[in-house]
Design a protein that fits this description.
The structure holds two protein chains of two kinds. By secondary structure, chain A is an all-alpha fold. Chain A is about 80% helix and about 0% strand. Chain A: Belongs to the binding-protein-dependent transport system permease family. Chain A: It comes from Brevibacillus choshinensis.
Chain lengths: ~260, ~280
Amino acid sequence: MKPNKAFHGSVATLVMFYLFVPLIATFLYSIATDWYRTILPEGYTLAWYQELFTDPRFLQALQRTLVVCLIAIFISVGVMVPTIFIVTVYFSKWDRVLQGLVMLPYAIPGVVAAVGLIKLYSSGPIVLSGSIWLLVGAYFVIVLPYMYQGIRNSMRTIDAIRLVEAAELLGASRMQAFWKVIFPNILTGIIVSTLLSFSTLFGEFVLANLLVGGHYETMQIYLIRRMEESGHLTSAIVVTYFILLFVLSGVVMRLGKSSKEGSR
Amino acid sequence: MKSRKRHLWLLFSLLPFALLVICFQILPLFTMVAESFRGDGGVGWGLDQYTKALTSKYYLIGLKNSLVISLCSSAVGIVVALFAAYSITRFSRRVRDFLLMLSNMTSNFSGVPLAFAYIIILGSNGLFTLLFKQLGWTTLASIDLFSWFGLVCVYVYFQVPLAILLLYPTYYGISEQWRESAALLGASTAQFWRFIGLPVILPGVVGTFSILFANAMGAYATAYALVGSNYNLIAIRIGALVAGDVAARPELAGALAVLLAITMVGAMLINEWMMRRVRRELG
């Protein structure tokens, strides 16, 4: 048993080391003064972060990313929560159709989706090419699977159909049944879906670059343009981005755990 | 009468969803497929674009490069994950959760930031490149990140955590009693894995492999961030044809995109099929 344990321990350590080397290197680079002659940096500084957070171009890019992501997620929550609720409770026969529709984006990579979007909206009745609304629409589609799974699962956990039946038997209207009974119970699911969607969209590059890249510099586009100019600054962006992701996924895990424990 | 009216009202509330999905998912896909059957500049109909895509040496090489890089990176990823995921199942619950959290975290690390991190460690002045030089390991020091091999290295990185997360649950299909019974009947560890362990997890492995394959086939950002449009991969070619520096050719892009989508949907279907088998065995 003993040597076995040592074996598994070293396998896990080795793989985790492999996975964290790029992150650690990026972090070191972001606080290094000069680092191209020696194995470890020659000195350490926080100047890159200071430069980054006072760079108006960075702040604008961050703002643009937030604007597009938040609009898309806001629309998505507003549309998907009632849709999933209505289909689950009143049209359960259609659930498979809905599932098929919302899972499709998993099989369609960004480049493929971009081809049709660009062609469809560059001419014809509605011209959206280069506008952020095209990106918002595309982002709405990307986050469909995350929204569906999170919200659908929490409706299943609380047995939404029976809860609505019970509420209606007790004299509640449909609206009351939804707002007073269902909504508070699926709120955690909605928040988890929202955060997952946000972290996906925040790191999205392909569609942003292909659909609006020239006109609208988001974080990821800013990142790739800055890569050639200053490596230290770029690594400061990557580290900032990763800390944000880390915090988001931590919150998601917490919420996921507490909602599971609550339902038991 | 009243209930029918309420029914209509409910259907009406599904309209925003239907509209958005039609406008940004169904219609674009439909346009893409339709466009792929048109001639250059949208004139006439036919299979021209497909003949072009499948006979032009350039695009065939792109397709081949994508297939090879996806197969290689998925194979390496799955072998690493086979060991790593199994080792993870052997720890206590706390350690297990912690390791899974770390894999989950790093699985978000892909695309442009990942390409950049690899430039820091393996680029021409990279951390490891310098280290290898000082140690005198010239072969390792001369790894060219912007070459084919370099690209495989970066792809493997984003495959490993995903493979661990997907493979990990399948190991729970092997119950501890089977191991004990096999050991009692005189089977060695190798024999146990050859005749019992591997056959049980095989559908899960194949399913995971197909997801990894699809993941690599559709990847665009990582390669684009490393070498721009220079590398001949199918995803990069599609991007260049719709929004590149040269004149856009949406029809040819459509045909290539349809071919890529078919391979991806095929991989997803294999995964579905395998997962159904896994569930049947577990259930």
